[in-house]
């Protein structure tokens, strides 16, 4: 028997969690960093229900399946970016509805963080539309203060500010930054079709600087850029080879924006989104998989299937940079109906509790 919103769902999920906690240490395979592209492609191409069943089992071995982290993303500096990312309305190269603005003052950002915390978000993310921080000493100092203040609220803090030097990463770490987002976006092969102003290796260098500073890495991709299945597999393969898998892997579905080169792209198929989430969960078992941009286009049942397949974080709130976002009340209602609960700030995964190096 399965009734949406009924006690049956919650009881079933908690029973599955208990069984997983009791047996995971002796039944799961070690996290791998030597996946081949062929192996990942075979997983991606497997029958969809079999794929979701397998990914759900992996998810329950490494995570509490009843927990979803609520994250809120705020644009603290909009537009005027010199990069040519073909999906982004914040590029100064395109004529879009997004207008450039200065870096926000500290207090409005802190007010937004307090509101997010009151509504159940446990990670507050701040994004600035910059290529890098060169020549932005005063702005960077202001951001460091934002990081300190938000961390003082007891929240996890994430920023996405473009490319970072080793020294800038260290300063963010000292200020209390929890995680840094720097997406690879797609495979190495398809990347030049999307962006020409920053190389793939430059992105990897920033990720290395962040990790070397002791900050968690948040790095994923965007589906619907015109890429192939091989490119989606290539993205997962790229992060799987890292010495330490990203702490979180955002899976974004392109939201086409008028004025960008990709404004006429067709929406990514739901099957593709689900396959990417499930494959990522199997290959990156300890990583938090973030259901990110484009989620508002999914109905509740489709989102629940993504959670079943291994997604365990969402962005929620008033907006997500320049694209729509599901609101807190809507998300809390959905989670209640499906027997899900919010993940607390700085919560540990099962692997971390056991002291297993991912």
From TrEMBL:
Domain Radical SAM core: start-end pairs: 66-295
A Gene Ontology molecular function term of the record: 2 iron, 2 sulfur cluster binding
Residues passing through the membrane, by range: none
Residues annotated to bind [2Fe-2S] cluster: 125, 158, 218, 290
Pfam family name, one: BATS
CDD domains associated with the record: Radical_SAM
Binding positions ([4Fe-4S] cluster): 81, 85, 88
Pathway recorded for this protein: Cofactor biosynthesis; biotin biosynthesis; biotin from 7,8-diaminononanoate: step 2/2
EC number: 2.8.1.6
Main EC class the enzyme belongs to: transferase
SMART domains reported for this sequence: BATS, Elp3
InterPro entries for the chain: Aldolase_TIM (IPR013785), BATS_dom (IPR010722), Biotin_synth/BioAB (IPR002684), Biotin_synthase (IPR024177), Elp3/MiaA/NifB-like_rSAM (IPR006638), rSAM (IPR007197), rSAM_sf (IPR058240)
Cofactor remark from the record: Binds 1 [2Fe-2S] cluster. The cluster is coordinated with 3 cysteines and 1 arginine.
GO CC, any one term: mitochondrion
Cofactor or coenzyme needed: [2Fe-2S] cluster; [4Fe-4S] cluster
GO biological process: one example: biotin biosynthetic process
Keyword annotations of the record: 2Fe-2S, 4Fe-4S, Biotin biosynthesis, Iron, Iron-sulfur, Metal-binding, S-adenosyl-L-methionine, Transferase
Family indicated by similarity: Belongs to the radical SAM superfamily. Biotin synthase family.
Designated name of the protein: biotin synthase
Organism per entry: Cristinia sonorae
């Amino acid at each position: 028997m399965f009734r949406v919103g009924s006690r049956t769902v919650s009881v079933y999920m908690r029973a599955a969690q208990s069984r997983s906690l009791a047996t995971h240490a002796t039944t799961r395979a070690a996290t791998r960093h030597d996946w081949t592209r062929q192996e990942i492609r075979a997983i991606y191409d497997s029958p969809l229900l079999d794929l979701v069943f397998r990914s759900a089992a992996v998810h329950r071995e490494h995570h509490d399946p009843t927990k979803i982290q609520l994250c809120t993303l705020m644009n603290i500096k909009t537009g005027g970016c010199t990069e040519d990312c073909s999906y982004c309305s914040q590029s100064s190269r395109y004529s879009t509805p997004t207008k450039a603005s200065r870096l926000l003052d500290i207090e409005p950002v802190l007010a937004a963080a307090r509101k997010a915390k009151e509504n159940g978000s446990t990670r507050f993310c701040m994004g600035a539309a910059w290529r890098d921080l060169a020549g932005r000493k005063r702005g960077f100092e202001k951001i460091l203060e934002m990081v300190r203040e938000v961390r003082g609220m007891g929240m996890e803090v994430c920023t996405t500010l473009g490319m970072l030097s080793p020294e800038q990463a260290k300063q963010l770490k000292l200020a209390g930054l929890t995680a840094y987002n720097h997406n690879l976006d797609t495979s190495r092969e398809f990347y030049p079709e999307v962006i020409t102003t920053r190389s793939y290796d430059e992105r990897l260098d920033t990720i290395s600087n962040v990790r070397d500073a002791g900050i968690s890495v948040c790095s994923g991709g965007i589906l619907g850029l015109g890429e192939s299945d091989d490119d989606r597999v290539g993205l997962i393969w790229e992060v799987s080879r890292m010495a330490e898998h990203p702490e979180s892997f955002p899976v974004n579905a392109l939201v086409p924006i008028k004025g960008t080169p990709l404004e006429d792209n067709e929406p990514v198929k739901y099957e593709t989104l689900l396959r990417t989430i499930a494959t990522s969960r199997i290959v990156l078992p300890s990583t938090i998989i973030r259901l990110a941009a484009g989620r508002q286009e999914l109905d509740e049942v489709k989102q629940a299937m993504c959670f079943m397949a291994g997604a365990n974080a969402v962005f929620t709130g008033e907006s997500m940079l320049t694209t729509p976002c599901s609101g807190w009340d809507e998300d809390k209602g959905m989670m209640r109906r499906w027997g899900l609960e919010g993940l607390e700030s700085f919560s540990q995964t099962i692997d971390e509790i056991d002291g297993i190096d991912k």
